[in-house]
Amino acid sequence: MKNRAPLSLNRWQKTATHLVLIFLCIPFLLPLFWMVSTSLKSSEEIFPKADKASVTLSLSTALPEKPQWGNYRDALNTGPFVLYLRNTLLLCTLNVIGTVFSSALVAYGFARMKFPGKEFLFILLISTMALPRQVTMIPVFMIFKMLGLYGTLFPLIIPSFFGNPFFIFLLRQFFQTIPQNLSEAGTIDGAGEFRIFSQIMLPLAKPALVTCALFQFLATWNDFFGPLLYITDPEHFTVAYGLQQFMGSHSSEWTQLMAASTLFTLPIVILFFRAQKVFIRGIATTGATG
Amino acid sequence: MKGQALRGYLFISPWLVGFALFVAVPFIASIYLSFTQYDIISPPVWVGAVNYKRLFSEDPLFWKSLAVTIKYALIAVPLGTVVGVVIALLLNLEIRGIRFYRTAFYLPSIVPTVATCAIFSWMLNPQIGLMNGLLRVAGIEGPAWLSREPWAFYSLILMSLWSVGGSMIIYLAGLKNIPISLYEAAIVDGANAWHRTVHITLPMLTPVIFFNLVMGTINAFQYFAQAYIMTQGGPEDSTTFYALYLFQRAWRYLDMGYASAMAWILFLIIMFITMLLFKTHKKWVHYDS
Prior knowledge:
Chain A has 14 helices and no strands. By secondary structure, chain A is mainly α. Chain A has one domain (74-286): MetI-like (MetI-like fold). The model of chain A has no long low-confidence stretch (mean pLDDT 88). Chain B contains 13 helices and two strands; from the N terminus they run H-E-E-H-H-H-H-H-H-H-H-H-H-H-H. In chain B, helix 3 (60-91) packs across helix 12, helix 4 (98-110) crosses helix 8 (165-176) and helix 8 (165-176) packs across helix 10 (193-220). The interface between A and B is large, with 101 and 108 residues.
């Protein structure tokens, strides 16, 4: 019932709505189109002719004269993009595993177990979400430096194994909706609480776990601040950080920069089209805005 | 019973340990640091309230960065809310191809921040960028967007609007949750589309708007990466956001005590504004009985 739109439109109104939506879409899609189009142009195409100070646009300049796939080869080599990609994927994998498992464990504890101070601890957990990163940034940096981990990838991995408040909140709600008798059946069988959790609850919570995994993947893929603080060696650069460094040092190689940006964005777009429902559901329930 | 309590603590232990290590201890340590002079290399030296004194009375850039950040929050957050709600309202209409439109508006918000910055740096290039190219077609010579006041600041606002899709989806989900029966009753009473939007849709959407407003404001006060990547605070500090200035103090000048004091002031400001927003909560946020 509730999925029906509140207004039914006549034909004229529908056409008008289409026109408005198409018009509004343009500024949202044009930058993406321009990124891909530029990534396939030659450098001569984007710079003005010798006798002019600026480029005059025309419809014929919207698309590359001849697709320059070499830009992508150059982008892959200058980075070295492939190395950055390997670092990024390593971080993504470890962060997803770490954060999903630890968050599920904690969420289950908050959803299903009784212990003194539970309410208070949960409020504490929720309130940490509003704590600005700047407050803890310097002492956390000191801790990792004392541990001798500054300049390694560990500061970007370790924190994810201690649960993420957003995900704990989401998963706790999910666990609370699972009927109690399912886990009681486990107790009668003599299964320990951890076995009930891992063998009955985790499989049931799969959709919520997938949502968390996806959002953690995006967060790690995008993360610029972590590498900025902790990474010193170009061997450890992630794609996000490498791309920012590339922007700084090759400021006029736009075609190559756009090729690298396209390569960096494409996996996320593909992921979106393959898992649209997870994206939409995840945002609508967690309020995470990507 | 005791056994269950122990098991409970065991289950939440990852968070408990992480909270102690990465939140509680750093939280307290940063209060201490804010009263010290500390450069990471040599141990912190207690200096009392000197950092706070310097901030309030000797540092015009502190005030400027605070002003820039407040201005950003005051413009970007309401603007993003209006644009997000309007697009969500349009996407809630019953027409064909709604999935295409939804994707078109949403896609930019999942483009990684660094890529977004690269795209906009390129589009806003004064000589060969698309933006000024289009303006030239209209006979206008556009500004050097990212290196002229006040355009650099507004370029960042523009960029934030491009990523409005995330909150738009939350509004859309909120719209889908409004019971259709409310509209049916209103139609029976003879309310037209405009009245239904103003008297049913928007009031029913206020909890979601409130949520986005709070999160948006908290995020706006921590706005960092885009300014760091695109403008480095320039021109003439017009995009030196608070978090950017804090970062520069900490990692460029290794003035960690000073930066910690700034972090604490930021924390208090965010707390205060969040409380203020919650104070207004009852006045305009509608909850179903």
